[in-house]
Q: What sequence folds into this?
């Protein structure tokens, strides 16, 4: 991952630089727009994926940025019941399109890493049932 912004474009009055963190945020936003993505994953710390939600979008993204190209790795958590290959393909298309449209960089690859499956919280029928038993 580049930590220094590369010279992206030279104009008559100076250069335009795009920091890798900007590309990470663009990729993160594009990933969570896809239906079936529960959130970004901070990685597997102790075997458990951390659900980062929408506030820390760049935390689940790593980028390598060159003069004209970028490569992206996106780590996500999918919602249970969705087809992972379809979600991953849609993320690849959406991330590539968003970065290329906003920055003009050519995205050479988008790697999608599925770190976990998110289950919707139960509506707690067990607690209601236990309350009915005890009077």
A:
């Amino acid at each position: 991952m580049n930590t220094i912004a590369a010279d992206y474009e030279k104009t008559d009055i100076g250069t335009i630089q795009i920091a890798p963190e900007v590309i990470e945020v663009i990729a993160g936003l594009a990933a969570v727009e896809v239906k079936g993505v529960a959130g970004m994953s901070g990685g597997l710390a102790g075997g458990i994926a951390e659900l980062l939600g929408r506030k820390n979008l760049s935390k689940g993204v790593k980028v390598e940025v060159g003069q004209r190209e970028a490569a992206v790795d996106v780590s996500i958590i999918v919602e249970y019941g969705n087809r992972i290959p379809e979600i991953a393909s849609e993320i690849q298309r959406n991330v590539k399109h968003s970065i290329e449209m906003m920055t003009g960089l050519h995205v050479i690859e988008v790697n999608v890493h599925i770190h976990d499956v998110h289950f919707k919280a139960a509506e707690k029928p067990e607690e209601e049932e236990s309350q009915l038993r005890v009077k």
